[in-house]
Amino acid sequence: MPTDAMPAGDENTAPLTWHDGDMPYSTAFGDHFYCQTDGRLECSHVFLAGNGLPDRWREAAEFCIGELGFGTGLNAAETWRQWKTIRGTDGHLHFVSFELHPMRASEIDRALSRWPEIDAERRALVARWPESPEGRVEIDLDAQTRLTVVCGDAFDRLAASNFTFDAWFLDGFAPSRNSAMWSAELMQLVFDRTRPGGSFATYAAAGFVRRNLRDAGYRVDRRTGFAGKREMLCGVKPEAQ
Hints:
Blueprint: E1 2-5, E2 16-19, E3 23-26, E4 31-32, H1 39-50, E5 62-68, H2 74-86, E6 92-99, H3 105-112, H4 119-128, E7 136-142, E8 145-151, H5 154-160, E9 165-170, H6 184-192, E10 194-202, H7 207-216, E11 219-223, E12 232-236
Parallel strand pairs: 5-6, 5-9, 6-8, 9-10
Antiparallel strand pairs: 1-2, 2-3, 3-4, 7-8, 10-12, 11-12
Helix pairs in contact: 1-2, 3-4, 5-6, 6-7
């Protein structure tokens, strides 16, 4: 059961309550923001390993990750933590996330405080997070890591951008709760903005999600999911012929 509700405020910020002290739950979509078992380990299993990371960073001076659903910033924080352990002196990572309802800094802080492994990343993110996130939030996390959070409808904002991506973290709320985030039109746009040889990974394995990604042009594979979940999806955009 929820322990407390978000105070009234900016209608653009995330409508949420809290379960078990520090587990954010979206009242807009009726779903938790991340896996209840361990969201940080899920990030590593699904999004990082599913995209062949961190190994692919060894070969790239510049790397751009796209994410659908910034949420608490957990994926960004864990990705930044792992990036710092492997990057070369000249490497640069750009993490670009699309978020309809951005959280407040205090909510991000509360949600991420359960993981001491990302304490430094949490503190740095919260210190730089704007009081009223809107439009395009640009944060230099360090000299080799840039975070961009694009606030608003994912399809509209991605269509209006000029980004191209090496990897995607498809982490919207569950397809049964937020089907628009997994639509054929959005998956096609995600594919179109992926560089040849680029990839995606997602915890979602619903049949229509798999079909939409395959029909967009990805080679789609099913892998074992996290924490007893039977399947997850990952895939690659074929190299240009």
